[in-house]
Amino acid sequence: MAIAFFDLDKTLLAVNSGSLWIRRELALGHITRVQAIRATLWLARYHMGFVSMQDALVQAISHLQGTGEQPIRERTVRFYEELVRSQYRPGALRAVEEHRSAGDRLVLLTSSSGYMAELVARDLGLDAVLCNRFEVDAAGIYTGRPLGQVCFGEGKRSYAQACASEAGVPLSACAFYTDSYSDLPVMEVVGRPVAVHPDRRLRREALRRGWPVVDWGAPEGARAVALDFPSQ
Question: Is 183 a catalytic residue?
């Protein structure tokens, strides 16, 4: 048995669910315009190379301190059903089934939250989820701290290594599919790294190293969903 690791945003999905989440939370009044702008600026600074996304994730988690977990979980379910579930790339679904048919273990390796990741794993029939989770106290209130290591960059590699070790599978027998240069630490240690609709830096690196670059397509309406939000 081998392991196939899959990134989520812009890889299995044709959209970035994090950006959609910020816009939806703003539209529904759950965050202020100032909070939305701050989050968007963090993303922009990351893409320009001025800030670590790991720092941004820790900052975002800290802002949850003192709020209840259950409303976030419930809003994530609605968000997934209304805006995300329809955004799987056609090629992604085929790749998942090909690995399943080959008897491989299917693992989601994402910087997304456990709430989102678990919904994806349920719908796609994945075997395991490696993601960001948040510490919650006995009363169901966020402490503002991540639960375990942040699942991003080197953190993703640590999670992948631990998963492979637990399954008794060498990373050389594993595949990893991603769109992002930030996932280079994982791509460098698996036997089959695959760039899916890669960003500019990852495309350049993949071509330099001879890694496969694939096009998994996009579902109809992907652009419309990225722009339109329900009014409720």
Answer: no
* Catalytic member of 7, 104, 179, 183: 7
DSSP line for 119-147: HHHHHHT-SEEEEE-EEE-TTSBEEEEES
Count of residues for the chain? 232
Domains and CATH numbers, the chain: 3-227 (3.40.50.1000)
Q: Cα torsion at 93, 94, 95, 96 (round to 10°)?
A: 50
pLDDT digits (tens, 9 = 90+) for 110-154: 989 999 999 999 999 999 999 999 999 999 998 988 888 889 889
Active site includes 7? yes
Phi-psi region of 125 (alpha: psi -120 to 50; beta: other; left: phi over 0): left
